[in-house]
């Protein structure tokens, strides 16, 4: 009968250790492999430094260029909304901040709960909108793979179960919290092996792009 | 013990000098206690007036008597004392006058005379059927055999305290006595859990009052706890909650935040995961409660509360993760990534070494 509490303690204990270990092994393997493979040697004489252009591009690519925005305004706007909402909830909710502090040994101030709650609700709506768009847009639907839907489902489950647990909409509460932690653990496990790796590689890829252009002395 | 179960509650209360006015006040308090509208008070009065005092057999197993202390230490005369006095407590190790054979005889007699109608209240956990029965015995009988014998003809069982409800301290890892909760063992009777270490006195009397008034047991949550008392979390009813929502926390027990009464989340408060009535009913005649006294909630009314993480660790901190796990896994990953990259390079080199160039003409000839 006390099964849901055992489930919660299992997700907070051994399962969290396993998930974080798989995440760390997978992510480090991917990153080290990427860095060690590097790029083919460029024998041309550089026209400018690559570092400033690389670093600049890491930031400038965050804003979509006008052409992209004109072609796909939905992707840009909704993408921005849910990414910001997700990061707000992930990084600035009090219990998450305490979790980060316990794992990394340091953390930052949290945001007031009503703000995080609002961000979470917006994120849920935006994620639903992205799925509807993916299913109804002919091109998007055509190019979507199983991985795209898997990643969407896992991310959505993390946000949804967090919202349900915070508002205590599932009874008993340990089950709600355990489901949220389990969803987050699934996200951690698949992160290094799916397109979710972009959380870490997006900025590296931008640096490579910017640096390549910078070396040629052209705008990126 | 004096036999009084032939009197109605109304008669019994009048014998104790309780006025009609006092009786109605008791009913109104009972209504509010059970989260019922005030209009229910007359119905409660009518029901209580006619109710027969139920026979109650109180079994104490692997417990510390804290639950009994909690019930009896109430300031006399209080409402809970009155109600407590108006059940026929036919067997209770600590409180009964009889001892030895006479005590056990009282239990068997109460069971025989009230077959199918008596209530069994249990405090303490029970070494399970597979455990060594010698871990806890009463009058030479194992706790398990006494429990199963006593509940056989009971109307319902009330598990008082976290040990009886969920196993509590005796069941904490490594659970040397094979301790089990009442609901682990009693499957064919209604079991009401009144957890807490100890539970609030008003909660146990409230459950009994509900049974007397309505002739049935109160509405229960997923853990068999009465919703009227365990329906909301400590966190949601905590007077310090606004500080949590604003992000204002005490960082230590004597810092400025603690003095200003800020939220105790970072000091390990288990309020968010704990369901109980402490924040609203409080303790010691409504004087205070742990969080008001400046100490985080330990989560004592929840299953596994001894094993659910350090009392002074925030609720969201993982239970077993050490820095070694993350660092070790990171190193393993880095080595694996390095190995993969080296292999890929080696393969590329080999391919470059054995490459056989093809000209366009050769390709066209093949086509």
Overview of this protein structure:
- The complex is a heterodimer of chains A (about 220) and B (about 375).
- Chain A is mainly alpha-helical.
- Chain A has one domain: Up-down Bundle (Fumarate Reductase Cytochrome B subunit).
- Chain A has helices at about 5-10, 15-35, 50-60, 65-70, 75-90, 95-105, 115-135, 140-145, 145-165, 175-190, 200-215.
- The longest helix of chain A is centred in the first third of the chain and has 24 residues, at about 15-35.
- The mean pLDDT of chain A is about 95.
- Chain B folds into 3 domains: about 10-230, NADH:ubiquinone oxidoreductase-like, 20kDa subunit (Rossmann fold); about 235-320, Cytochrome-c3 Hydrogenase, Chain A, domain 2 (Irregular); about 325-355.
- In chain B, about 40% of the residues lie in helices and about 10% in strands.
- In chain B, the strands form 3 sheets. A 5-stranded parallel sheet of chain B has the order 2-1-3-7-9. Chain B has a two-stranded antiparallel ribbon with strand order 4-8.
- In chain B, helix 2 crosses helix 3 (about 40-50) and helix 3 (about 40-50) crosses helix 11 (about 200-215).
- Chain B is elongated.
- The mean pLDDT of chain B is about 85.
- At the A-B interface, helix 1, helix 2, helix 6 and helix 10 of A face helix 14 and helix 17 of B.
For the record, what is the CATH homologous superfamily label of the largest domain in chain B? Answer: NADH:ubiquinone oxidoreductase-like, 20kDa subunit
Task: Write down how many β-strands of chain A occur, each being a DSSP E stretch of 2 or more residues.
Answer: 0
Number of strands of chain B: 9
CA-CA gap between termini of chain B: 109 Å
Shape-level CATH architecture of chain A? Up-down Bundle
Examine the coordinates and then state which fold CATH places here, giving the name of the CATH topology of the largest domain in chain B: Rossmann fold
CATH class of the largest domain in chain B: Alpha Beta
Mean pLDDT across all amino acids of chain B? 86
- Using only C-alpha atoms, the radius of gyration of chain B works out to 30 Å
Order of helices and strands of chain B: HHHEHHEHEEEEHEHHEHEHHHHHHHH
The CATH topology of chain A turns out to be Fumarate Reductase Cytochrome B subunit
Q: Estimate nothing, just give the exact number of structural domains of chain B.
A: 3
Envelope shape of chain A: globular
Largest interface: A-B, 49 and 54 residues
Question: What ranges of chain B have pLDDT less than 50 throughout 5 or more consecutive residues?
Answer: none
Structural class of chain A: mainly alpha
Q: Report strand % of chain A.
A: under 5%
- Assembly state here? heterodimer
Mean pLDDT of chain A: 93
């Amino acid at each position: 009968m006390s099964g849901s509490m055992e489930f919660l303690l299992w997700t907070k204990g051994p399962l969290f250790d396993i998930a974080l270990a798989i995440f760390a092994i997978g992510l480090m393997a991917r990153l080290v492999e990427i860095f060690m493979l590097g790029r083919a040697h460029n024998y041309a004489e550089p026209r400018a430094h690559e570092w400033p252009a690389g670093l600049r591009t890491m930031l400038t690519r965050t804003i979509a260029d006008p052409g992209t925005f004109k072609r796909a305004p939905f992707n840009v706007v909704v993408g921005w909304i849910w990414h910001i909402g997700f990061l707000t909830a992930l990084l600035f909710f009090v219990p998450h901040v305490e979790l980060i502090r316990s794992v990394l040994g340091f953390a930052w101030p949290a945001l007031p709960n009503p703000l995080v709650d609002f961000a979470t609700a917006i994120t849920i709506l935006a994620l639903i909108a992205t799925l509807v768009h993916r299913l109804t847009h002919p091109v998007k639907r055509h190019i979507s793979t199983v991985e795209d839907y898997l990643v969407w489902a896992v991310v959505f489950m993390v946000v949804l179960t967090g919202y349900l647990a915070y508002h205590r909409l599932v009874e008993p509460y340990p089950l709600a919290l355990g489901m949220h932690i389990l969803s987050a653990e699934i996200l951690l496990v698949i992160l290094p092996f799916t397109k979710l790796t972009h959380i870490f590689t997006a900025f590296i890829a931008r640096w490579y792009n910017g640096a390549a252009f910078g070396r040629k002395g052209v705008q990126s | 013990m004096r036999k009084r179960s032939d009197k109605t509650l109304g008669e019994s209360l009048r014998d104790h000098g309780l006025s009609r006015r006092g009786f109605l006040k008791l009913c109104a308090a009972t209504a509010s206690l059970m989260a019922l509208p005030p209009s229910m008070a007359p119905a409660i009065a009518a029901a209580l007036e006619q109710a027969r005092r139920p026979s109650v057999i109180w079994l104490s197993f692997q417990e510390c008597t804290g639950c009994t202390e909690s019930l009896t230490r109430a300031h006399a005369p209080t409402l809970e004392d009155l109600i407590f006095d108006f059940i026929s407590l036919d067997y209770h190790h600590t409180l009964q006058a009889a001892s030895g054979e006479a005590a056990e005889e009282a239990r068997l007699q109460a069971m025989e005379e009230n077959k199918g109608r008596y209530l069994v209240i249990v405090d303490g956990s029970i070494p399970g059927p597979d455990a060594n029965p010698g871990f806890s015995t009463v009058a030479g009988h194992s706790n398990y055999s006494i429990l199963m014998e006593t509940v056989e003809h009971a109307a319902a069982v009330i598990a008082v305290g976290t040990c009886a409800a969920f196993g509590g301290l005796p069941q904490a890892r490594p659970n040397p006595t094979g301790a089990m909760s009442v609901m682990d063992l009693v499957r064919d009777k209604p079991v009401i859990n009144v957890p807490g270490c100890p539970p609030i006195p008003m909660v146990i009397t409230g459950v009994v009052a509900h049974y007397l008034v309505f002739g049935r047991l109160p509405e229960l949550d997923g853990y068999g706890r009465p919703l009227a008392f365990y329906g909301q979390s400590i966190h949601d009813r905590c007077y310090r909650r606004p500080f949590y929502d604003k992000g204002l926390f005490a960082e230590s027990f004597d810092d400025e935040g603690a003095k200003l009464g800020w939220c105790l989340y970072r000091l390990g408060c288990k309020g968010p995961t704990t369901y109980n009535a402490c924040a609203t009913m409080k303790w010691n005649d409504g004087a205070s409660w742990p969080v008001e006294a400046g100490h985080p909630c330990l989560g004592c009314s929840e299953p596994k509360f001894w094993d659910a993480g350090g009392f002074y660790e925030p609720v969201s901190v993982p239970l077993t993760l050490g820095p070694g796990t993350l660092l070790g896994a990171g190193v393993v990953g880095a080595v694996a990534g390095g190995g993969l990259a080296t292999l890929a390079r080696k393969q590329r080199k080999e391919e470059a070494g054995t490459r056989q160039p093809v000209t366009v003409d050769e390709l066209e000839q093949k086509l």
